[in-house]
């Protein structure tokens, strides 16, 4: 694939140029926030930092963090930095981990956000010749509107499908020859499964690339989707608080996502102490938005755990890369004292030849944690004898024990009995929180 850039002067700029741009923008942004957001001004005053103390990115660590709790505290208007009559859009988080928060955009903010999404589409080879099917939800969720805007900027023929109505998704995809699919990875897996049921094979599906994000997914899941749809599957990352999808995006190398550093500074911190960690270490990702006008967050703690690396990339981009988030710090379950991430369970299941249709249930009975994983049998396995199925369950439980250090009770269930996801998949039911 020939490398394809939307804004090569930025995407391939020298590290010095990017750094100078960040320094200049940070100084301006801190001033803008201090003057216009009393909530953050208070945080800075409490920490004894003045805008004049921030002269370059080297001073970033002096600024206070802002957290999701602050966003909920300041809901709805407390972090707004522009008069409402200059704002043109509101978006909201999906509420995966609690009360939704809202974010505001000026027209300029929407424009820059859509540029970020256009970079992501061009990085997967998108051009004006492509038909781009956007099957992320539209509305308050940022997935649909963001990729829709990016697709327009690239000049693709845009199919604003939104999520759901799977029959119509398949019909339009095949009738209109969609070449790029944008949706959550769990929905992509479901669309692949549904196409196969209709008799399509990877060769007869018109798609060439997919841009999948908004939820964690493993390398195993990537391989599965690529095989099923006959495409290259690329990751995209973002969050409403910082703009939406397109904060970072994958390139042809498929080994981490380039962060749009002209708009966002990324740091990795130790989630317990707040200390900034050196490149290459795992920690919590923190973003400072440099160009947002209406809702500019400084040092926002994402709770996503990942690693940053600045390496020469074969795509020619110089933007720093982040690894796939290993999960959210609040996704991590502590079961009988052991830290477990759903992504580890997914990796084992796919490696052992199962589909990504699973559900994890954790509960506490007589002061002991129970840990159950339900996973679907494939139609071929379904005809196995009870004995064979029990053997499979034991084998899976042993593989899980090796990976996690703790063995769940495995339950193999009939095909199609675990609900499919059209947006962000809900795979964990932690009943301990309900008691
Ligand atoms: P919510 O926090 O309610 O889900 P958003 O819809 O804004 O709100 O989702 C942002 C979050 O989604 C991120 O903080 C991250 O945890 C997750 N996310 C987004 N893209 C990815 C990705 N490519 N891989 C893993 N997680 C992702
Ligand atoms: Zn690259």
What's this model, at a glance?
By secondary structure, the chain is of the alpha/beta class. It folds into two domains: 1-329, ANL, N-terminal domain (Rossmann fold); 333-430, ANL, C-terminal domain (GMP Synthetase, Chain A, domain 3).
Quickly give the CATH architecture of the largest domain.
3-Layer(aba) Sandwich
The major pleated sheet works out as: 9 strands, mixed
The overall average pLDDT, rounded, is 95
Helix content: 25-40%
What's the number of extended β-strand segments?
21
Helix/strand-derived category reads: alpha/beta
According to CATH, the fold-level topology of the largest domain is Rossmann fold
**Number of self-contained structural domains:** 2
Strand coverage percent: 15-25%
Adjacency order of strands in the biggest sheet: 4-3-5-6-7-8-9-14-13
Q: So how many helices?
A: 12
Can you tell me the residue ranges where pLDDT is under 50 for at least 5 consecutive residues?
none
Distinct small-molecule ligands in the complex: adenosine-5'-diphosphate, zinc ion
Query: What's the level 1 CATH class of the largest domain?
Result: Alpha Beta
| Dominant shape | globular
Compute the CA-based radius of gyration.
22 Å
| N-to-C CA distance | 53 Å
CATH homologous superfamily grouping of the largest domain: ANL, N-terminal domain
Protein model, in words:
The protein folds into two domains: 1-329, Rossmann fold (3-Layer(aba) Sandwich); 333-430, GMP Synthetase, Chain A, domain 3. It contains twelve helices and 21 strands. It has a nine-stranded mixed β-sheet with strand order 4-3-5-6-7-8-9-14-13. It has 435 residues and is an alpha/beta fold. It starts with 7 loop residues before the first helix and ends in a 5-residue tail after the last strand. The model has no long low-confidence stretch (mean pLDDT 95). Helix 2 (15-36) crosses helix 3 (38-47) and helix 9 (219-229) packs across helix 10. Helices cover 32% and strands 23% of the residues. Bound molecules: adenosine-5'-diphosphate and zinc ion. Zinc ion binds next to loops.
């Amino acid at each position: 694939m020939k490398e394809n850039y939307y804004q090569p002067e930025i995407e391939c700029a020298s590290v010095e140029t990017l750094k100078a741009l960040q320094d200049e923008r940070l100084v301006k942004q801190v001033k803008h926030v201090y003057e216009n957001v009393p909530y953050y001004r208070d945080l800075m005053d409490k920490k004894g930092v003045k805008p004049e103390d921030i002269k370059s990115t080297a001073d970033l660590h002096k600024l206070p963090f802002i957290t999701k709790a602050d966003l909920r505290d300041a809901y709805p208007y407390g972090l707004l930095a522009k008069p409402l009559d200059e704002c043109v859009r509101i978006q909201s988080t999906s509420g995966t981990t609690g009360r939704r928060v809202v974010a505001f955009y000026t027209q300029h903010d929407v424009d820059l956000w859509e540029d970020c999404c256009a970079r992501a589409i061009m990085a997967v080879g998108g051009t004006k010749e492509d038909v781009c099917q956007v099957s992320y939800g539209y509305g308050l969720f940022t997935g649909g509107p963001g990729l829709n805007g990016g697709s327009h900027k690239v000049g693709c023929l845009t199919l604003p499908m939104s999520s759901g109505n799977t029959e119509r998704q398949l019909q339009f995809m095949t009738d209109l020859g969609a070449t790029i699919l944008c949706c959550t990875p769990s929905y992509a897996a479901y669309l692949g499964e549904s196409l196969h049921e209709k008799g399509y094979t990877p060769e007869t599906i018109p798609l060439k690339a997919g841009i999948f994000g908004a939820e964690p997914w493993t390398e195993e899941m990537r391989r599965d989707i690529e095989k099923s749809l006959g495409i290259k599957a690329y990751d995209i990352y973002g969050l409403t608080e910082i703009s939406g999808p397109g904060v970072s995006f994958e390139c042809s190398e498929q080994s981490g996502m380039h962060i749009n550093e002209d708009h966002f500074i990324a740091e990795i911190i130790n989630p317990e102490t707040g200390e900034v960690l050196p490149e290459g270490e795992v920690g919590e990702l923190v973003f400072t938005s440099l160009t947002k006008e209406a809702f500019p967050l400084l040092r926002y703690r994402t709770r996503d755990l990942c690693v940053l690396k600045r390496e020469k990339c074969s795509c020619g981009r110089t933007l720093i890369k982040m690894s796939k988030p290993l999960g959210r710090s609040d996704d991590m379950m502590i079961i009988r004292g052991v830290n477990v991430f759903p992504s580890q369970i997914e990796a084992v299941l796919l490696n052992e030849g199962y589909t990504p249709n699973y559900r994890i249930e954790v509960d506490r009975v007589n002061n002991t944690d129970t840990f159950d994983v339900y996973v679907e049998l494939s139609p071929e396995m379904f005809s196995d004898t009870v004995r064979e199925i029990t053997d499979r369950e034991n084998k899976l439980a042993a593989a899980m024990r090796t990976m996690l250090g703790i063995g769940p009770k495995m339950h193999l269930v009939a095909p199609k009995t675990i609900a499919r996801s059209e947006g962000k998949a809900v795979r964990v039911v932690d009943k301990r929180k309900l008691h």
